[in-house]
Amino acid sequence: MRLAIFIDGGYLDSVLLDFKKARIDYEKLCDELKEELSLLRTYYYHCLPYQSSAPTDIEKREFSNAEKFQRKLSRLESFTVRRGKLAYRGIDDNGKSIFEQKRVDVALATDLVMHSTKRLITHAILITGDSDFIPAVEIAQSEGVHVKLFYADSKRPHDELMDSVDSLKLITQEMIDRIKR
């Protein structure tokens, strides 16, 4: 029985903010999630922060820190980082910049479907909240893959996503405490 873990980095970042900006050990996270299953690979999907054509010192620092973090993740055993692109979409009514992740959801859905149809996995764990993944979940299930969704109460996933998976697991303070760096 083989497992792949699919982490929506933006969703997990948002969850960790609600746990007092907890900094976690991603190897401990994988060990916690896999339980007794054999882990094929963990995939982490995220974008680097936006950097303008004339970046400020803050933009440069945030970009550099995110790049270093993602590089460290990619060096973990059986860990793959897939980067999307962050697109600037203008300014909202409050004068705040609007950014949109591109390619992240499609990459996660594609990997889930590919691993399922190639019979590389029997189990999949998702850490996300987006209902856009429902078609990929349904394909994985039709291929016999058991799909478990990990989520936080504070960032409750879309109801339809929660209804579509095989099992649900709440991310709790106790779990965060076990996997902290």
Fold blueprint:
Elements: E1 2-8, H1 9-17, H2 26-34, E2 38-46, H3 57-74, E3 79-83, E4 85-91, E5 97-102, H4 104-117, E6 123-127, H5 134-142, E7 146-151, H6 159-164, E8 167-170, H7 173-179
Helix pairs in contact: 4-5
Kindly list the characteristics that best describe this protein:
two-stranded antiparallel sheet, Rossmann fold, alpha/beta, 181 residues
Q: Which regions have little confidence, pLDDT < 50, spanning 5+ residues?
A: none
pLDDT averaged over residues:
94
Radius of gyration: 17 Å
The SSE order reads EHHEHEEEHEHEHEH
Give the number of DSSP strands: 8
CATH topology: Rossmann fold
Q: Please state the structural category.
A: alpha/beta
Gross morphology: globular
Strand order of the largest sheet: 3-2-1-6-7-8
What's the domain count? 1
| CATH homologous superfamily classification | 5'-nuclease
Return the CATH class: Alpha Beta
| Number of continuous helical runs | 7
Strand residues, percent: 25-35%
* Name given to the CATH architecture: 3-Layer(aba) Sandwich
* Main sheet characteristics: 6 strands, parallel
What does this structure look like?
By secondary structure, the protein is an alpha/beta fold. It has a single domain, classed as 5'-nuclease (Rossmann fold, 3-Layer(aba) Sandwich). It contains 7 helices and 8 strands. The chain has helices at 9-17, 26-34, 57-74, 104-117, 134-142, 159-164, 173-179, and strands at 2-8, 38-46, 79-83, 85-91, 97-102, 123-127, 146-151, 167-170. A 6-stranded parallel beta sheet has the order 3-2-1-6-7-8, with helices on both faces. Strands 4-5 form a two-stranded antiparallel ribbon. Helix 4 (104-117) runs parallel beside helix 5 (134-142). The chain is globular. The two termini are 29 Å apart. The mean pLDDT is 94.
